[in-house]
Structures are given as C-alpha cells and as structure tokens.
Design a protein that fits this description.
This protein is an alpha/beta fold and about 260 residues long. The protein has a single domain, classed as 3-Layer(aba) Sandwich (Rossmann fold). It contains 7 helices and 11 strands. It has a 9-stranded mixed beta sheet. Strands 5-8 form a two-stranded antiparallel sheet. Helix 3 crosses helix 5.
Length: about 260
C-alpha cells in the first residue's frame, strides 16, 4: 500500500518547499514538489495526491501584498482543481505565505453570501519583519493537523502576519466553532509572544471540516529537538521537534 502523497505547490519566490517536502517524508508520506505552472499545464497531477501544501516564502516577491499574486493565479487558472481536491476530501495546508494565499483563494474563511474573504493577514503592528520563536496553544476542535497537540513552540518569520477579521464580531463565533484552533500564548514570565498584534492572538485558522488549515508559524523548521535554540539541557536531543506532529497527523489521516 502506497504512503499518502503530498503535493508541495511552489511559485517563484517560494523558499520553504524543500524543508516542507522533507517534513512530510519524515512523517511517513511521499512528497512531490510541483511548480504552479506545471500544475496549470497538467492539472491531473493533483489527482494522484491526498495532501496539498502551499509552503512559506515570498511568492512572486510578495508584490502588491503577501501571497496576492500567487492567490490570483490559483483563482484564475486552478480554481476548479482546488475545489475538486477539497470536495473529494483532500487535506490542504498553508504555512506562512501559504496561509496568506489560502485566505485569498476562497478555500479558507470566506463569507458564504458575498464570497469575499472574511479575514486577512496585515502588516505586523511593529512595522518590522519578525523572526523568532513563539509559544502556541492548540485548541480542541475539528482541525486534523493539530490532533492530540497542546502547548508547543514554533518559529515565526514574517512581516505580514497580523490576523484581522473584516467583522471583528465574528471572532467569538469562529472560535466557538473551532475554526481558530491555534493561538499565541504567554511565555514563562507572563509576557505575550504574539509577534504581530494578531486579533484574538490568532496564529492559525481552519475551515469547518478541519481539513483546510493555515498557520503563520513554521512547523517544518522544528522537526528535531536540536533545532530549538534552547535545546541543550532542556530537550532530549533524540526527540522529535513539536512541528513534526502536524505532518504526522496529516499523513495518518490519509493513510
């Protein structure tokens, strides 16, 4: 029996595709890196995969806004492919730039009446690019990728990661529905680790089924304990990093 296959969809400027493919392979899956133009030319490539991942980076140089051009390309040239993939039960993961893309494609947090995005990822309140580790909490709900996870640490690296809702009143209902399953929490000294000023400390969001998930932190950058800056004397060097479990959950769900 073949292992579940993950399609890592990249564009010019994507720079985390190799690490993300490695993460899925470490989790027991098979990964294939595919350029978006190759998928446009041969959409059937997606038919052989059970997981679709848009990794981090600076797609198309983040011109106009982060992920905007990549999202427009997907909407205008691959919308039918994405919707078929979703409707047949495939898993979709967007990491950092991939999360920015998902929010603009109609796959994640889209108003059912106007069909416009309910949320976006704005510039960090600091006005600066942030690259550091954060504390996170996984909340119980439908999200396939976060099953069995509680509190964890992951690195972030972005300039536009501030989660904002078009209607702030939707925060409570989305949270109650389990669609905001990942939030930033305080460190041991009680200081917030929210790096960007995100509304409700939101670090990730999913669709109602929990099969489409986007997050700002980079789980593919914490597959081994030794990748943590404070691993020495604190973590078992032979232990897996907390990020690996997101990929393990995805592969298990499609096995």
């Amino acid at each position: 029996m073949l292992s579940p296959r993950a399609l890592i969809l990249r564009a010019p400027g994507t720079n985390c595709d190799h690490e993300t493919a490695h993460a899925f392979e470490r989790a027991g899956g098979m990964a294939r890196r595919v350029h978006v133009r190759a998928l446009v030319e041969k959409p059937s490539i997606a038919d052989d995969c059970q997981i679709l991942c848009i990794p981090g980076g600076f797609s198309y140089g983040d011109d106009i806004a982060s992920g905007r051009i990549f999202a427009l390309e997907l909407k205008t040239r691959l919308a039918d492919v994405l919707m078929r993939f979703r409707d047949r039960g495939g898993l979709v993961l967007g990491i950092c730039n991939g999360f920015q893309v998902l929010l603009q494609t109609g796959l994640l947090l889209t108003d059912p009446v106007s069909h416009t995005p309910e949320a976006s990822l704005a510039h960090n309140t600091s006005g600066r690019y942030i690259d550091r580790w954060v504390r996170l909490r996984c909340h119980a709900g439908p999200c396939v990728f976060l099953r069995g996870l509680g509190d964890l640490e992951l690195p972030v690296a972005h300039a536009e990661g501030r989660f904002v809702l078009r209607d702030p009143a939707r925060l409570e209902s989305l949270s109650a529905a389990g669609q905001l399953p990942l939030t930033y929490i305080a460190d041991d000294e009680g200081r917030s680790t929210n790096p960007n000023g995100a509304m409700g400390d939101v670090a990730g969001a999913c669709d109602p089924t929990g099969r489409i998930f986007g997050l700002m932190p980079h789980p593919e950058r914490f597959l081994d304990a030794t990748q943590h800056p404070a691993w020495c004397g604190r973590l078992d060097p032979a232990a897996p990093g907390a990020g690996l479990m997101l990929f393990v959950n995805a592969v298990k769900a499609m096995a």
